[in-house]
Amino acid sequence: MLRITLLSGEELIRLPLTELSDVKALKRRLHQHHGLPPRFRQRLFNNGEILDDDFQLDSAMDLQVLIVSFCDASQDQRRELCAAAMDGRLAEVEAHLQLPMDPDCRDDESRLTPLIRASGDGHVDVAESLLEAGAQVDMIGLNEATALMAASCGGHTAMVELLLNAGADKNLYDGEDWTALMFASFEGHAQVVRMLLDAGARRDLCNFENDIALDLAFRHAEVRLLLQTSDQGDGA
């Protein structure tokens, strides 16, 4: 049995060892079922020593949990986190999140968040960690673009699925009144278009030039067929 208390001595929970494997699993359990912040902001101690996330929970023990605030990240740290997210360097991203850094921090040059950076290049594992750390799925970056727009423009289907499952808004506009569906249609990413339509993306929204997704897909016959079929289905 694991007994978890606050540093004050107040007991938080007791859990059977059979339900957990390591400290990471315990932190996720404490976040998902007991209201604690994401694992990156939790510190677990045993006999005054901090336990790493990969520490195996294979014997009964008393643990203490401490909740830490986000650090005051420097400009270099913010830039490094965004660059690591863009390049898909998961270990570096997690190391920054463990400081802990705010997952929604932006570098001062591009004003893009780490999630937008990861989404634009299709790094699903990085995006999963950022979302677990509490990254806001619809936070806007340069030109008011979102992570879903970046993933849709790049044709990254697994990323689009992840973001949709995380609750991303399908119908947000960027600074030029483009939606995720418009980006996917213009670039000819048929599978992404299908995913967005299935998720309820509106194909009738107009951009600043009064174009809808169908207009923007003029080079891509498969995408046009998808959008036209959706149109017929909506009117049926």
TrEMBL record:
Residue stretches in coiled coil: none
UniProt keyword Repeat present: yes
Ubiquitin-like domain boundaries: 1-59
Taxonomic superkingdom: Eukaryota
GO molecular function terms noted in the UniProt entry: kinase activity
Name of a matching Pfam family: Ank_2
Keyword Iron on entry: no
SMART domains noted in UniProt: ANK
This protein's UniProt keywords: ANK repeat, Kinase, Repeat, Transferase
ANK repeats: 110-142, 143-175, 176-208
PANTHER family, A to Z: ANKYRIN REPEAT DOMAIN-CONTAINING PROTEIN 39-RELATED
Protein's name according to its UniProt entry: Kinase D-interacting substrate of 220 kDa
Species lineage: Eukaryota, Sar, Alveolata, Dinophyceae, Suessiales
